[in-house]
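Subject: for your reference before the review

Hello V.,

The reviewers asked for a structural picture of the protein, and I figured it would be easier to keep everything in one thread rather than splitting it across files. Below is the amino acid sequence we used in the manuscript, unchanged from the supplementary table.
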Amino acid sequence: ARNIWLFSFYLAGMRASDVLQLRWSDIKNDRLYYVMGKNQKPGSLKIPEQALSILSEYQHLKKDDKDLVFPDLTTIEDFKLGFTFSSKIIFPCKSNSCISNSLEKQVPKFI
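And here is what came back from the structure prediction:
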């Protein structure tokens, strides 16, 4: 949860629901190309060094470019159901509260 929150922070407050759905294929030449889940707008961001460092921690889990960067969602049963699945993470993660609440006490220790 800490890495997801920090990654979101380093990428200008990217929504947690979008971070959780990132795939390795979304990253090209130290840039992130993705479509925002809330409004379907395409976005492109240069990935800062701190975020690249976080990505390197997950590189060993990558088997394919279609794999999730943060594999936490792969254990959810209906992950491949598209909208149904997206709504399950978007609503609880509104305003990053799903991550913020769990890190409330931990973040000050790490920053």
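For the response letter, the relevant points are probably these. Residues 82-88, 99-111 have pLDDT under 50 and may be disordered. The chain is about 40% helix and 10% strand.

Happy to draft the paragraph if you're swamped.

O.
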